Amino acid sequence: MVWKETVKDVMRETELTLYQYPVWKISIENQKIAANIPLYKERTSPAYTGYPSTTERMAIEKVTKEIKIQQIEKSLEILTEWERQYIEEKYFNPRHPSDYEVCEELGISRRTITRLKTPAILKVATALNIPKAEECLTEIMMKKWAIQGGHHDQTRENPSDLRTV
Fold first, then answer.
1. With CB atoms 3.0 to 4.6 Å apart as the test, which of 81, 84, 87, 162 could cross-link to 115 if both were Cys?
2. Which residues contact 64 (CB under 8 A, 6 or more apart)?
3. For residue 56, how many C-alpha atoms fall within 13 Å in the half-sphere facing its CB?
4. Which pTM value belongs to this model?
5. Is the pLDDT of residue 156 over 60?
């Protein structure tokens, strides 16, 4: 039970990060547009407080978002084509479609989505260095490998070839 809760926690954190991706991309683009217009003025005083200024905070937030965006984009490279399509349709779509709607859009069954979802999200979580993600992914992959009779075939791209974990 503890292990299942850990997987749920890792997946929840990863899903939140994935849902934020399109917002961060727009935010960065808007900051680039606004960079040419002085929208705020840095306030300084004779006594330095040691706290970051508004400008510094905005710069830190921008860099943090840019790093997360790059990490997410890089993490998509390790996914199969089906996993990547699922992640992009489910989490980067502004409509926030349900899994059922994603199935319809991709032309695959609900059962197939169920088999794709957990490993795909855990791969992304591991690439994003989310705590406990690697252990969860290893456990899932070991179970999947055992179910397949010890045969691990990474060449499969068709999600209907996957067995339930």
1. 162
2. none
3. 6
4. 0.73
5. no
